[in-house]
Design a protein that fits this description.
alpha/beta; 8-stranded parallel barrel; two-stranded antiparallel sheet
Length: about 300
């Protein structure tokens, strides 16, 4: 649950979450050639390449990052074989001791929401037994269907000691078209933040945070700082660092006085560090680690040099 995430951040002194959103164009040619050897199916070759790439990144960066966040769309793109690579990535990251956030942004009517929740956070009933399908530690959830779409996820959080992050103020440029609209004197994202707080009222960890977190984009630093003050018990997942333009200064408002309260996601900035550096492609994992360490140093600076 949230305690494990906080403890990982404190242990590693790093609130970075490494986004694993791979495209074939991010992957070194040598890895793609290795994956394609003896394989006639291009989807199978792609899936193998995704996992080899993720495995290399995880091996290099696991000692430094608190969590990983594989975004499911980048695996669905490569058919069912890509979804196998998604599961393999989650399983491998967990074996390495990492906290795994399944970035799936799922929801629907209550019964379908229950199926989504069980798929990513709970267990699937299989006749006389139950087994986890993807077994992530947390998942992102779209909250705009209302409470009947949230409750199944909260039930799984309670039963299986998991966590969810509801979309509150997203990092994309057009998020304000709906999320900044005013109704009853408040912006929609403010109302969603209040609802997120209410959903998490039944559980507060030893660090003061609930198992119902919020996605709040680094690309809107004023709103990020505003929501930190208004939602002191809501843990933030903050996308938008790096390739989307935000840096350490923009995310400073996400943290509490202890340097806790948020994990900051970087995906392309870490995965594609080898391309940005122009280094040998065989050093892709080492380049990712160098970027993680740069990011860690920048984030520690804005939280006063120490977390916890």
């Amino acid at each position: 649950m949230i305690d494990r995430l906080c403890e990982a951040i404190i242990e590693k002194q790093n609130p970075t979450v490494m986004g694993l959103d791979p495209l074939l164009s991010y992957i070194p040619e040598s890895l793609k050639a290795e994956a394609a050897a003896g394989c006639d199916d291009p989807f199978e070759a792609a899936a193998r390449a995704l996992f080899l790439f993720n495995k290399g990144l995880i091996d290099a960066c696991a000692p430094e990052v608190a969590a990983v966040k594989p975004q499911v769309a980048y695996y669905e793109l490569y058919s069912w074989q890509g979804m196998r690579a998604y599961q393999e990535t989650i399983d491998y990251a967990k074996r390495k001791g990492l906290y795994v956030i399944a970035d799936v942004k799922r929801n629907d009517i209550g019964s379908t929401a229950s199926a989504y929740a069980k798929a990513y956070l709970g267990e699937t009933e299989l006749g006389s037994c139950k087994k986890p399908a993807f077994d992530a530690d947390a998942a992102t959830v779209s909250p705009y269907l209302g409470s009947d779409g949230i409750r199944p996820f909260l039930e799984c959080c309670e039963e299986y000691k998991r966590m969810i992050f509801l979309l509150v103020k997203t990092s994309n440029p057009s998020s304000g078209e709906l999320q900044d609209k005013v109704t009853d004197g408040k912006k929609v994202y403010e109302l969603m933040a209040e609802a997120t707080t209410a959903y998490g009222e039944s559980y507060h960890s030893q660090y003061g945070y609930s198992n119902c977190g919020a996605v709040v984009g680094a690309t809107y630093p004023e709103q990020l700082a505003e929501l930190r003050k208004k939602a002191p018990h809501t843990f933030f997942l903050v996308p938008g660092y790096g390739a989307q333009g935000a840096g350490a200064a923009e995310v400073a408002g996400a943290f509490d006085a202890r340097g806790l309260g948020a994990v900051i996601n970087s995906s392309r900035g870490i995965m594609c560090a080898w391309q940005k550096e122009g280094c040998d492609e065989r050093e892709f994992a080492e380049a990712a680690l160098r970027e993680v360490r740069r990011m860690k140093a920048a984030l520690l600076e804005v939280v006063g040099g120490k977390i916890g």
